[in-house]
Fold each of these.
Amino acid sequence: MGCILVCEDERAIREFVVLSLKRAGFQVLEADSGEAALALFDTAKQPVDIALLDVMLPGVDGFTVCRRLRAQDATVGIVMLTARSQEPEKIEGLHSGADDYVTKPFSLNELLARVQALYRRVQVLRDRADERYLEKIQRGDFTLDLRSRTLTAYNRTVDLTQVEYQILEYFFAHPQVCLKREDILRQVWGETYTGDDKVVDVNIRRLRMKTEKDPSNPRHLLTVWGEGYQWED
Ligand code: CA
């Protein structure tokens, strides 16, 4: 039985969606704010398979929640519930790492069909991820060995510091996703780190020296201007 996190501040819509998902056989976690959704995601006993996120929320908005969940978990399915059908909002949702979006008002059958289709995709992804994460992550010409914590690039072993290893592991688990400096800081240095986020840039530069054929013209560890960094195989 899948676990679905529903984040919607409008109580009537939330209760209606929650009840329908429960009837369809899902286990459901309910949040009325972005902050509550992030907390539930971290503390859930069973991993969340799909998050249904309303965009317009008081406090932390749905796109921010989406980005944070995606940064933590590359395989969780994310559906944005958007009140408006304008293109920019949909596009922002997909850039934030959402898999799908449903425009309000939506029909329950449509929502359930999307959730069930996405749930099947998530299960396939997670099965594959389980196999792959046992020992090694292979990305293009790079192999990260999770046991020995070493990198092989173009068939050569590359020495990495612990921090460089952790950053690369984070990118390899989230390819083609823009990871912001603050996400990298939180992941590698921890929630309590209070130093300058320039430390991320310094480490990215060093990683480029070690992974790029032409570090000043990177092909893999890309800068996303004004946003962060992104790995491409
Ligand atoms: Ca709302």
Amino acid sequence: MKFEIKNYIAGELIAPIASQYLDNFAPATGELYSLVPDSEAQDVALAVESAQRAFPAWRDLGAEGRSAYMLRLADVLERDIEKFALAESKDSGKPLSLARTMDIPRAIQNIRFFATAILHAHTETHDASPAMLNYTLRQPIGVVGCISPWNLPLYLFTWKIAPALASGNCVIAKPSELTPMTAYLLAELCQEIGLPAGVLNILHGLGGKVGEAIVSHPGIKAISFTGGTATGSVIARHAAPVFKKLSLELGGKNPVLIFADCEYDTMLATTVRSSFTNQGQICLCGSRILVERSLYERFRQDFVQEVQKLTVGNPLHESTRLGAVISAGHQQKILGYIALAQEEGGKILTGGKAVKPEGCENGWFVEPTVIEGLPYDCRTNQEEIFGPVVTIQPFDTEEEALKYANSVRYGLASVLWTQNLSRTQRITQAIESGIVWVNCWLMRDLRTPWPLALRFKTSSKESYPLILSKTFCGK
Ligand code: TXE
């Protein structure tokens, strides 16, 4: 009998009403190790009723009251960091070291950040005295839906639920059916801290079934979704006719622009990370590496050498840098793109194959793969692969680099490596992406939803971060 994950509704951990379950596999071993509720519309109805009942008291508890619950939740999560990191690693295939240093700490930070931000929230007043005073009153909307993906399970799950809860909303949340475990464990912690029943409800199951039931339910006023672009479009089709508020964070095909004047060693180490962290399964990973021609040969040689040092292996081993990809189907999708790249004329410089690390022979692993020789407009360079696969391409001028960078339909993130301030200004304005990281990657400040982070090395070799308040508009 496999362990049965439960839904969390009205403060209780309960089985799905229809008692149907889905299989949950450990990607590193292929082992079927738990069962996930295959929830449906009737489970959603129950959860919405409980959230609607909980809403007035949660709203009226005020910012300090809500903050106190959330801070307690962050504290017990921090106490259990090792347990959660192990669960995340097993459920998703990612290295335990990554779950321990990135996923779970960031989940704790998400909860703490919004729990304290709400204490300092303020709004604008427009004083047209003596006749009138206009002010903006921010109020919770009621019951909201949060649907998150499998690549950063608890990290993205908490990033969605924390601001909603802190603002006084009650939440119906659904983690990915591929990675349900840490959301389930979080429900146990909500019980432990005595979070009022119905404030947070966690439903498990398939996107096309329970996910759509969440999106369609008339009692749910807003949807926050992160996942595939095609799914986002389905959700928008359901939500638009009933005028739900909608936040969609979808795919990316992010360019990395490397100029010859960059701070080389930092660039090289960071580009390895921005390519292959979490097996390349982060929507913010850079997958199209564009290099100024005068630096191209040196970069290619060093980059391939560094990538070959990355250990693909058992996620529990400390030396492992790349774990398993999320599923057998996703492994096939990635390998399919590698085959396509070769058909399109690409040359594989390293990687390209599935691997079976010792002790994980039935798991779903792919070697970190670097491909060159492809035109910027081929499918490999235009479509999101979402795996450990990058292409490298030389360019001669800024205009050419920008043309390649902006050629895709995505506009999520980009990375720029240069020491030239004027070039930085030109490129960050011309590049069509919501986030531009300059001389760094994945630095985030939760106060700016899509920050423009700049980091320059001075001639004295001291580095300092500089966050501009400018927010770029996505494509
Ligand atoms: O994600 P899905 P998939 C990209 C990546 C990947 C592709 C597909 O390219 O290969 O998307 O991945 C729920 N109504 N990203 O298919 O299906 C689903 O249950 C409501 C980028 O695994 O979009 C899960 O909880 N919900 C991405 C969540 O949506 C629905 C991260 C995401 O699953 C639904 C993941 C529906 N009709 C994949 N269909 C990123 N931006 O970080 C599915 N879901």
